Structure formats: C-alpha cells, structure tokens
C-alpha cells in the first residue's frame, strides 16, 4: 500500500494588512520590507481563531476531492498557534467542527509543520492503519507577534492550507520520498519563550522572538543541502521537477536555495509577496494557489521544502493526483 496526495484546499481571512498600513504602526517602509523580504501584503484574522481557518481550509480540500468528512480516518493539524496552548488540541476542535469523531492530533514543527504532517500521514497509510488522512497547516501568527517590533511584525500573516492523503496501490501515484530532521541547538534563534512551563506566563516575552540574520544563514545552508540530498537519493535533478514549492518565509531565502539547486525561476512558486510568512500553512496555501490558477496538473512532481523554529527542516517529492 502506498500514500498519495489526493486533494488541496486553503483559506485566508479577508482582512489585508499592507506595507503602507505598517508604515503607520511602526518605524518601517514599504521599500525596506519589500527589498529584504519580498512581502507586500499579509492577511490578518480578526474574529477567527486557528481552528476556524483550519476548518475552512479542510472543507475546501474535501470539496475539491468530492469527499465527505465521514470518509476521513484521521486529522493532523500542524500549528504553532493552537486555540489552546495545552488542551484540547486544535485537531480535536476541527474534528468537532467537521462533525466527526476520529483520531485527531496536533504537531509542532514550526514552519516545517506541513511536511512533518505529510510524513506522519504517509506512515499511517503505508502501515495499513488508515485510508484517508486530513492534514492541515494553520496559523494565526498575528496573535503572537509584537506589533511594536518592526523586525518581526512585518514578516508574518495568517492562513490555513489542507490536504487529503489517501491510500493507493498504484506506485506511480505515490509520494516518492520525504526527508525530515531537526537540531535543537538552535532553539533560541526562533522562539516564543513566555508561552510554556519553562518561563511560565512571562508577559514580557509572550511574543515571537527571532535572531533574523543568524536564522537566514542557517536556513539557506540547511535547505540547500536537504533538497540536494532528497534529489540525489532518488536519482533526480531539478529537470525532473515540475514545481518547486518552498516554505514562503523570505524571497531571498527562496531565491538562494533555488539557485543552489539550479531550479529555473519559472518552476519556483512564490506567494510570499501576498501572504507573508504563514509558517506551517505556507506550503499548502502555495500549492492551492497553483491549483486554483489551473497550473498544477495531474502527475506533476512537486518538490516541497521548509525550515522552521527548533530548528526543524524537511523536503518532500510529491506527485499531484
């Protein structure tokens, strides 16, 4: 039994925050943000929480697959902005919203969350436990950024993306390979220290903190190597890839990795300019944009690539079905 990528869906909240809006909030400029990140706008959740975004993305994926919620055997939600920081899991809340009683669990791999969720779903299906697993990357990062910190608040946005991973006996449809990894020695480079038991409810440090330059350097080096490794392991090159869909954190990181693996610009998918960094939601949201634009075709090979706090990172070779 193999696992295949069956369907995609996404949702973004309607409110858009532009760089010009941010100029009125902090000491920054559209020119500064665009030059360093490529970001022009981001979506902000107002009267919605993470489970609301996740649910709407899930419904979109189910509709695209022409499936009912009852056909889902398990739900995995990747997020660093859960509705509740202890319990219940956001996945449990999403299951309730879908009206089903199923195994449901959250995972936290930061911006690499969707690829980690994909790896979990693949393993569950290939083990024979389940036939259809709903995986969701969903974030309301606007709720954990310090809107007075110009170095971080300009980077992040809210959104959700969902995919259905299903069983198949056709190897040509199957997910080709997934590579995930982590190195905890960089844990303080990207962290929200005041939202756990280590520091308690430290109201001075409840926001996301990032060592930007250091994170950038490690990200480019690590992502480039991860992509090289997975391609070499499968005797593939950039010529075998139809779409390079990286985590949408920063245009400069995406461009550096693409150049390192000789990936043509026309194959690289960019959505960072309109959504900003949506962490675990960014890859499925980018896949969904490509699908809704009619560019993503059945059988296309997607190369997914992500890097996030922890540090975590991962790559995946996935045919679209």
List keywords for this structure.
single chain; 321 residues; alpha/beta; Peroxisomal Thiolase, Chain A, domain 1; 2 domains; five-stranded mixed sheet; four-stranded mixed sheet; 9 helices; globular
| The top level CATH class name of the largest domain | Alpha Beta
Which CATH architecture of the largest domain? 3-Layer(aba) Sandwich
Query: How do the strands line up in the largest sheet?
Result: 1-7-6-4-5
Helix content: 25-40%
Please count the helical segments: 9
- Class of secondary structure makeup: alpha/beta
> Would you give the CATH topology of the largest domain?
Peroxisomal Thiolase, Chain A, domain 1
**Order of secondary-structure elements:** EEHHEHEHEHEEEEEHEHHHEE
Strand segment count: 13
CATH superfamily of the largest domain: Thiolase/Chalcone synthase
Concise description?
The protein is of the alpha/beta class and 321 residues long. It is 31% helix and 24% strand.
General description of the model:
This protein is α/β, with parallel strands linked by helices. It has two domains: 2-171, Thiolase/Chalcone synthase (Peroxisomal Thiolase, Chain A, domain 1); 177-319, Peroxisomal Thiolase, Chain A, domain 1, CATH 3.40.47.10. 31% of the residues lie in helices and 24% in strands. The chain is built from nine helices and 13 strands. The strands form four sheets. It has a five-stranded mixed beta sheet with strand order 1-7-6-4-5, with helices on both faces. The longest helix is centred in the last third of the chain and has 22 residues, at 212-233. The protein is globular. The model has no long low-confidence stretch (mean pLDDT 95).
